[in-house]
Write a structure and sequence with these properties.
alpha+beta; Immunoglobulin-like; four-stranded antiparallel beta sheet; three-stranded mixed beta sheet; 9 strands; 36% strand; disordered N terminus
Length: 149
């Protein structure tokens, strides 16, 4: 009888622990980059940023993928295990000359390569972090970022 009591209490204890640590506190984020001008060659830099302090700064991303541009107009990649209690945003650069940075032109002023950010929040000047924050509600969360040239 004592063994059954210990077993029952152990099960109740385990259920209490599991109830306080709910599953699903992380999500996978599936990013599709579309409208790639593949004839320009080069590579895509898909960068994940966490917080406005490091948004679009060199080496400020928490994760990134660099993939060669092929003959496809879309590329898909996944960021795994992102905490739901954090804010994330994505930037994408079509690095045509594969120099690992976004190049600028003088006239008209602006990027010389294709760019995109989450939520498609492009505007004059650099995009802001808060409008680009991704609303992650389930796993996986899917977003599409069209490039603008």
């Amino acid at each position: 009888m004592k063994q059954y009591l210990i077993l029952a209490l152990s099960l109740i204890f385990m259920q209490t622990i599991m109830a306080n640590d709910p599953p699903g506190d992380t999500v996978d984020l599936v990013v599709t980059v579309s409208e790639i001008k593949s004839e320009q060659g080069g590579q895509l830099i898909i960068a994940l940023f966490q917080g406005s302090d490091t948004w679009l700064t060199p080496d400020g991303d928490v994760a990134s993928f660099v993939t060669p541009v092929t003959d496809q107009s879309e590329v898909q990649t996944t960021f795994h295990g992102l905490p739901l209690d954090q804010e994330f945003a994505i930037s994408v650069v079509h690095d045509k000359n594969s120099n690992n940075k976004m190049d600028f032109r003088w006239l008209p002023p602006g990027p010389a390569e294709g760019i995109g950010v989450s939520n498609n929040t492009m505007r004059m000047g650099p995009p802001e972090f808060q409008p680009a924050v991704i609303n992650m509600q389930g796993s996986p969360t899917f977003i599409t970022i069209p490039l603008q040239y």
